[in-house]
Fold non-specific serine/threonine protein kinase.
Amino acid sequence: MEKAERTPLGTVCANLPCTSSSPTAHRKQIDTEDPFVAYPLALKIMFNYQFAAPERHLWMDMGTELIPVRKRPPELIGYMAKYFLAFITHLRNIIACGCHAAVYEARARTVEKAERTPLGTVCANLPCTSSSPTAHRKQIDTEDPFIAYPLALKIMFNYQFAAPERHLWMDMGTELIPVRKRPPELIGYMAKYFLAFMSFLPHSHPNIVHMYKAFTDRMPILEDAHRLYPEALPTNDFFELVVDEPKTLFIVMKRYRMTLREYVLTCKRNFWIGRVMFGQLLEAIVYLYDRRISHRDIKSDNILLDFDTEEDVPHLVLSDFGCALATGTWKVRYHSDTVDLGGNLALRAPEIRCARPDPDQLVDFRMADLWAAATIGYEIFTR
């Protein structure tokens, strides 16, 4: 130990099980036939295949290896602590994955710990696990994942790695239409942009997805990411350009039992349950209509249901506002094919689908959601 303290790695060797400080006893211990006595430690050397990545990426990409560590390394302080303390142990299985985002099971840190983390403002006011350590462990070990992980974390895919962070809020801003509390980033210049080109819902609605928080951070490389969405990962394997700290948008939402598509394929229902479900969908559309918002991507995969047993009447909510029109007007000038007319081609209303680009062409989305809702009703009552 005396020699270790004089080496550059003295701080690493401190508090480790060491051999005797006596030279004679030290040699005897090394010469022993039992290697577990002579070499009581194991050194794990991780393989870093991304040689050009900054050092902090090592802590982020391999951070789950450190979950059992007794003493937190000094590198995990400040910005790194922000990443680790908030979310490193609170994501589990993937729920869904598409072209624009992936959704993971998530849970909030206990209230006492969340308030001490740099991301305490993100975790605040979220449905969290119990503050009692014993109850907390029991809740996590429960067989029902919807109790242990009551939240869903939506990770948006940012394919423009070199774009400034403010572009994330602008390009993906419609996703935040239902957010309960406007993020602090949408204040000042950003608020001026959003209020001019997009409107938020003034208050929550029981048939609109409960969206708690939104924030930006670096794009994490999670389990199965290379298999499920490799094109969305900022790695040298797919891109010749190395961009420092590419970021993306994260959205924290309430977790629901399943999508409407999964429900109609797996669960039995009668005509009365179908009517209640369809009525809830119309309630959501009317609420958006009163505020001049058109969803433009209504389909069974974007409708979420929550229930305890299959005999219950599901609680239905409308989600995924990434293609929504919330400019305060129903009409969009369709001057070229580059104009976005919504995400669901199959369920577009006839006046939208039959439109052709022209300098004087105006497409009216006033009744577009109602047409899509009728097709959803057919799916509810016939399958």
Remarks:
- Confidence is low (pLDDT under 50) at residues 78-85, 111-122.
- Residues 15-44 form one domain.
